[in-house]
Each structure stands twice: as structure tokens, then as C-alpha cells.
Amino acid sequence: MPDVRPRLALTSGEPAGIGPDLCVRLAQALAAQDIGADITCLADRALLQARARQLGLPLRESDAFRIEPVATAAPVVAGQLDVRNARYVLTLLDLALQGCRCGEFAGLVTAPVQKSIINDAGIAFTGHTEYLAQACGDAHPVMLLASDGLKVALATTHLPLSAVSRALTPALLDETLRIVDADLRRLWRIARPRIAVCGLNPHAGEGGHLGREEIEVIAPAIARARAAGIEATGPWPADTIFVPRQLQAHDVVLAMYHDQGLPTLKYSGFGSAVNVTLGLPLLRTSVDHGTALDLAGSGRADPGSLIAATRLAARLAGSMAAV
């Protein structure tokens, strides 16, 4: 039986942001290179055509890139948010999820959304990751960002720093470590993932002198994970784990909070890093940046992260299909 070429859904994100620009640029890239999958872009076709004209580029549809049209509720001006189009953004996600569930799509790639305008529309929305998790039956999502040579997963995501310590419960760490281990095996085909677990406090608590979370919560979770066959080590001080010698000895770093792990990754791989949501019953990748309203329609938005996210989704979809 011949191999079936995977088809991925691409949601074009906030219509006033750079998402439409990036989709146009991706169509150009796919005309020049084969990434091993075909793309269905969920977007307002007239919006993409208008943005392509603004960028001075042709909008090329082909077997590798086709548009599934979804109309915006109001006219779009690049860089100018319109609360009337907030629901449109979620409709794109809902259609992509439906396609993933029924097998039409092998995975989902998402362009950036503007959380503030969705909230301004009266819709409770904290981010793509949380929205997808809820839509998938309250799955436990784990955010992981990947660039060449570095993967960073997060135990907590969009929380105030003052709330992180309370959120780091034994149950959360146990489940997060299980998911990171399972999905690095499932998606990246790593036989025995080596997980470096960060401490929460400076110097990983310095033996309890700078905090006791490492002693009372994080180290016991690592011990339970190791007893379950997961190769987790730590707690590591965050200021010493992100060095080449340590990174070469591990497949992924599990950071305790958003800004503990992501500044290093974005410094080393910004513009080519990919956001992957672990713990979902579907494959989802995304860009590592926001909507960049000031760049929309300017021709200065870098499509590198979306191209990387699409290429990685194609590779991971192929890996999953080979199981």
C-alpha cells in the first residue's frame, strides 16, 4: 500500500497581525521546496489576496498549499485590531480541530493570535495551548519549544511569578514528566529521553537556604519519575544547566516557569524555534513569536519560525504515521 502524504491544517491567526503575511510567504516557500506534507490554510481568501498584493507577492495555491476559505466578520486593516473579528480567530481553530479529529488533517500548525482582543470580545481566552487542551477534553498540555540542538519544556506557562510556587504540586510535576518522556518517545523517536529538571530558586535552593521547593516538591518528583523508568535528573540550577556541556548530555530541559527557560531558547534560536504542544491527542506546532501588529503588511515579517513549525509538523506527522 503506498504511503499517504500527510495534510496539515494551518490557521492564519489574528487577521490584523503578521499571520496572513506569513501564510503568503509560506505559500511561496512551498512552491520552491517539498517539506513532506501538504498544507490547508484556513483563512479569509480575500484577506490573503489583499495582503499578498500589499507585500507585492503572488498568492500561489497548489496541491502543496491550498486555502479553505473562512470569512472574517469585518474588513481587515493590517495592524489595526477589530473586536468583531475575535470570533473568526477561534472559528479557524475549531475547524482545524474538527479536521484533525476526523482524520482529514494529520496535525495543526498555528500562526499567532492576539489574546487581548479575544478577551475584549468577552471570550475567556488565555492562549492557544489552554484552548486546545480544553477542546480536547481538558487534556494536560505541556508547552515545549524546540530549536536546533535545544528543547525546553515548561512545568507552568502563563502564570504570574508569584503564583508559580503554589502551582508546582507533586501531581503537576508527575504528570508533566510523564508527558515529556512519552511524547519525546512518540514524536521524536528518542528511545530513552534524558530530562534535565530545573530547580525553582537561585542555585536550586542552595540546600534549603534559598527556598525549600527543591527539597519538598521537585526532588521527590524526580525520584518518583526515575522509579517509573523516566531518566530525569536534577534539580539543576537554571544558571548552570543551559551550558553546552550539560545540554549535550540531555535531550530536553524542563523549566519550572515561562521566563526561566524561554529567554535562553529564544536567544539561541529566535526566528527558527518552534512551539510544540505535548500531551494532546493531536499534533500541534506553532511559531515562537506574537502577532507583531507593527510589521503587518510591511514585508518585514520573518517567516522563518512558521516555515520551521510547518517543516517540524511534517516530520513529526511522518514519524507518528510510521509507528
**How are the strands ordered across the major sheet?**
3-2-1-4-11-10-5-6-9-7-8
Count of runs of 4 or more consecutive helical residues:
12
Count of individual domains: 2
Q: Globular, elongated, flat, extended or rod-shaped: what is the shape?
A: globular
What does the main sheet amount to? Answer: 11 strands, mixed
Which parts are unreliable, with pLDDT below 50 for 5 consecutive residues or more?
Answer: none
State Rg.
20 Å
CATH class bucket of the largest domain: Alpha Beta
State the CATH superfamily name of the largest domain. Answer: Isopropylmalate Dehydrogenase
Number of strands: 11
State the CATH topology of the largest domain: Isopropylmalate Dehydrogenase
Label the structural class: alpha/beta
Mean pLDDT: 94
Give helix and strand order, one letter per element, not per position: EHEHEHEHHEEHHEHEHHEHEEH
Q: Please report the distance between the alpha carbons of the first and last residues.
A: 15 Å
Instruction: Work out the strand percent.
Output: 15-25%
The helicity comes to 40-55%
What topology emerges from the helices and strands here?
Layout: E1 7-11, H1 19-32, E2 38-43, H2 45-55, E3 65-69, H3 86-101, E4 107-110, H4 115-120, H5 128-135, E5 142-147, E6 150-154, H6 161-167, H7 170-186, E7 194-198, H8 213-227, E8 231-236, H9 238-241, H10 244-248, E9 252-255, H11 258-269, E10 274-278, E11 284-286, H12 304-321
Parallel strand pairs: 1-2, 1-4, 2-3, 4-11, 6-9, 7-8, 7-9
Antiparallel strand pairs: 5-6, 5-10, 10-11
Helix pairs in contact: 1-2, 7-8
